[in-house]
């Protein structure tokens, strides 16, 4: 069994195809493997329309060929109304929205246990482009979790004695931002995000080995922090594969 992580997919899952896994890792994924997308899944987006039909077919086809399990962290560019209408099930000890038999979106503030390792999961972020989007069409306010969800996350942290192997988020805490970006870069970044502030606070509560995040469309790592965009990392070996998608 292996666990693989990648960043935002925005509705395009080709990097996780069997063909690309065989090329990049020397084998196809198997039924015990777990793939994790760190937010902005983007494959559940359009309501009943011609685009919805295409999305449904795309997901059905991907699910049919997926030999392992896909877990998704919630991002900011997600259709939350459609996601929240999905059935809720438990996978790896965490409450998830079930997308397909082998595709699940993990609820915020949940703790998943995979291969004996504990993962604290908390998605969401403020869309910096929301002024150019339309509510309920291309932007949803649920991108920022409410206070009850944030409190639930803190309770889960305390219930697990503040100790985790891995933290999986879409946004990053300030502590990671300072490690992964320069002061000049931060000067031009919009950092007014309640999720970032929340993660900054819980960072001081927890003991963890590695923190993985997406959102910023960069592949950068330093110390305990690893921000992923289109790279894929195999958690067990720490092998990083640069995205070289074969379109099939």
Q: Over all CA atoms, what is the radius of gyration? A: 17 Å
Cα distance spanning the termini = 25 Å
Number of helical elements: 7
Number of DSSP-assigned strands: 14
CATH level 4 superfamily: Metallo-dependent phosphatases
Helix and strand sequence: EHEHEHEEEEEHEHHHEEEEE
CATH topology: Purple Acid Phosphatase, chain A, domain 2
Architecture (CATH level 2) name: 4-Layer Sandwich
Major beta sheet, strand line-up:
4-5-6-3-2-1-13-14
Beta-strand percentage? Answer: 15-25%
CATH first level: Alpha Beta
In brief, what are we looking at here?
The protein has 248 residues and is of the alpha/beta class. The protein contains seven helices and 14 strands. The chain is globular, with a radius of gyration of 17 Å.
Structural features, described:
The chain is globular. A hairpin with a 2-residue loop joins β7 and β8. It has 7 helices and 14 strands. It has a single domain, classed as Purple Acid Phosphatase, chain A, domain 2 (4-Layer Sandwich). The protein is α/β, with parallel strands linked by helices and 248 residues long. The strands form 2 sheets. It has an 8-stranded mixed beta sheet. A 6-stranded mixed beta sheet has the order 7-8-9-10-12-11, with helices on one face.
Task: Summarize the SSE layout with pairings.
Elements: E1 3-6, H1 18-25, E2 34-37, H2 50-65, E3 69-73, H3 80-84, E4 88-91, E5 94-100, E6 103-106, E7 110-114, E8 117-122, H4 147-159, E9 166-169, H5 174-180, H6 183-187, H7 194-203, E10 210-213, E11 220-222, E12 225-227, E13 232-234, E14 239-241
Parallel strand pairs: 1-2, 2-3, 3-6, 8-9, 9-10, 10-12
Antiparallel strand pairs: 1-13, 4-5, 5-6, 7-8, 11-12, 13-14
């Amino acid at each position: 069994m292996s666990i693989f992580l990648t960043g935002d997919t925005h509705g395009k899952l080709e990097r996780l195809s069997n063909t690309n896994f065989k090329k990049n890792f020397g084998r196809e994924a198997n039924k015990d493997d777990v793939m994790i997308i760190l937010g902005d899944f983007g494959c559940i987006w359009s309501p009943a329309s011609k685009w919805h039909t295409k999305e449904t077919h795309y997901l059905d086809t991907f699910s049919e060929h997926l030999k392992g399990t896909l877990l998704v962290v919630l991002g900011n560019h997600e259709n939350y109304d459609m996601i929240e209408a999905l059935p809720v099930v438990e996978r790896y000890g965490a409450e998830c929205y079930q997308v397909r038999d082998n595709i699940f979106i993990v609820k915020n503030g949940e703790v998943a246990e995979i291969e004996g390792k504990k993962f604290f999961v908390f998605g969401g972020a403020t869309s910096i482009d929301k002024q150019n989007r339309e509510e309920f069409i291309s932007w949803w306010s649920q991108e920022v979790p409410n206070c009850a969800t944030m409190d639930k996350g803190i309770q889960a942290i305390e219930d697990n004695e503040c100790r985790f192997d891995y933290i999986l988020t879409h946004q990053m805490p300030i502590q990671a931002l300072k490690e992964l970006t320069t002061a000049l870069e931060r000067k031009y970044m919009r950092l007014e995000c309640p999720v970032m502030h929340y993660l900054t606070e819980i960072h001081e509560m927890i003991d963890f080995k590695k923190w993985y995040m997406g959102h910023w469309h960069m592949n950068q790592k330093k110390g305990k922090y690893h921000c992923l965009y289109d790279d894929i990392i195999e958690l067990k070996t720490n092998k990083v594969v640069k995205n070289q998608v074969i379109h099939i």
